[in-house]
Design a protein that fits this description.
Largest sheet: 4 strands, parallel
CATH architecture: 3-Layer(aba) Sandwich
Structural class: alpha/beta
CATH superfamily: 5'-nuclease
Number of strands: 8
Strand content: 15-25%
Helix content: 40-55%
Order of helices and strands: EHHEHHEHEEHEHEE
Length: 161
Amino acid sequence: MRICVDTTILLDILKDEFRSFQDKLYTALARKETLVAPSVVLAELLPQFKGNSKLLGEFLGEHKIEIEPLDEDSVIAASQAWMRYLKRKTKVKCPQCGSKLNLKKHFLSDFYIGGFASAKCSAILTRDRGIYTKYFPSLVGYEDCLPNNKTSPTGSTGSTG
């Protein structure tokens, strides 16, 4: 099975937080799943390694995660979800001038990861549940990491993305 690994899981490993989500990655490794992440994950992780791309590469290699570029299908899927998000986002009133401002709770990089997962992978491994369940409802969550979405790998009820 081809699994997209979200940045949140890798941060959990680096910071030794959210052990149950770390365990899902180690389960995937034990099952010899194919672990991939879009290049935007590389950009999000690099600050954790103080810009040292060699150390980051070693970390990803130790965890058998391949970085892949975003392709056109992934970017289109991300853009479609991003446009839905932009239509729904909350407006807040500026306390100083009274203008209505858009309140963003998500970053475009989250949508790139979701687009990549939906276009190129069988499942996603993430701790960031809100964006993927709301904007990528067909995504399969690896080891039940997405509540109310399809599950995988045993008893899989979803498509392969």
